[in-house]
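Replying to the earlier thread about multi-chain prediction with a worked example.

Input:
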Amino acid sequence: MKAERAAWLLVGPALLVIAVFFFVPVLAAFALSLTDFDIYALADLRNLRFVGADNYLTLLATPLFWRALGNTLYFVVLGVPLSIGASLGAALLVNAKLAWLKPFFRTAFFAPVVTSMVAVAVIWRYLYHTRYGFINYVLDLLGLGPVDWLGDPHISMTAIVLFAVWKNFGYNMIIFLAGLQAIPAELYEAAELDGARPLAMLRHITLPALAPTMFMVSILTMAGYFQLFAEPYVMTEGGPLQSTVSVLYFMYEQGFKWWNLGSATAVAFVLFLLMFAVTLLQMRLAGRGMEE
Amino acid sequence: MSMTRELAWRRTAVNVLLVLAALVTLFPLVWMVSVSLMAPGEASHFPPPLLPARPTLHNYDELFGHFGIGGYFVNSLLVSTAATLLSLGFNVGAGYAFAKLRFRGRERVFRLLLGALVIPAQVSMLPLFLILKQMGLVNTYGGVLIPTATSIFGIFLVRQYALTIPDTLLEAARLDGASELRIFRSIVLPLLLPILVTLAIFSFLGSWNDFMWPLIVLTDKDLYTLPVALASLSREHVQDNEMMMAGSVLTIVPVLLLFLGLQRYYLQGLLLGGVKG
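Result:
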């Protein structure tokens, strides 16, 4: 009995804060998304009306919302595989028996992860500068370019993807490294005795052994990439021609620029449902893959 | 003969690739430092200069003198320190209790918390803003800190680590008549020390780098944290590359040093938290 009281004493404060400042707002969010909460309701709650699914229906008829959804999906579909590919490549290199200075490279690849998104976005905005940017300078040396990275609506989102991959790949690299180190060395030794080439070992030993890690990493990375916000906020302000407006950027402007809190919450819910659906789909696919 | 030659070739390939990748990864950060030491306008040339002709601290003087970045730095330091202390205060006890103490509904509550991890924080943002407004906490650090005080991830992290504490140790202390809170304070906390360091770094870095929520909650410029101030500065001073790089240095370098100093704890936590529950 005393143990039970001590447990609640330790666990209670955290649960209370989570309940009041997370679970209550999440439930309230659903209710809020069914109202026309706007700047008038913010001033006086009597102006608040229940509007049912109106916010959702209006959203579906808003071209910018579809644009934001499309931009975000493009960012996810291009960014997640690139990012995971870079992470896996870096992990394989750092883990290679022939690699020198492993701790240095591991730390170097991880460094961008701990930097502030806003600060590195400021750096990359400058790296991407059409006239003075270093990236166009390198392209110029190779006889290419110049590319208007952040000014061309067809390229701006790809530029943000490349930046995001640079910023994030170190995180999953660490997780892959742990996965690689958990593979028993005997497997490789046996394969080597059989005369297996490195690429064959990668295909038949390493990648299958990493499958569970890959599954977890792809779900977490996907969830992170859906939440694109700070990059366009700092680098492009959603432009040019709204080519980098993400769902969260759209939500932020709806909610905190125009004070349409009801409609902004509906945006948040749509994003959540989308993420949830994609995660379920991934689990379904992975489940089928493992049965085979 | 051919075997050794192939090995040598492979060794070269691996290491050349590593060096190239490290160049791409580190170049933006190194260049940031270099450009921050250039005179105004020096970086706006083609080809872009790699090193300052005459290194100067002019941009830093300007940031501290004209733009009061020292104040934002102190704000960030205050907020991140408070966030770290709050996180330790709320999450450590909870994580330990979920791992080692029996109480009714433990498994169900824990599963509920893990399930809630799929809900992105942004879903709660707008109602939370209204709740905080009602409480008079908008435009205060209280409002910035409240959602970061507890973290399901933090509780999970501590729980995973606390699971490794042997039950016999706790049972022995109970037989000696020690109270549960006494056991927590004098036996458990010292054993949890490594994960406390990990949690502290995660909380500090998370709070230092946090952008969207402080941007929403803080309206008064004087209260801005570094990332919010930097974003606002960068929108007004798109042309002043040298000064913006100095601002980025001030925002990035402190946490980079913190990470370099304590990276063993940080990476350990990343792996512990990444393991599926």
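The CA atoms of residues 7 and 208 of chain B lie 45 Å apart.

Feel free to reuse this layout for your own posts.
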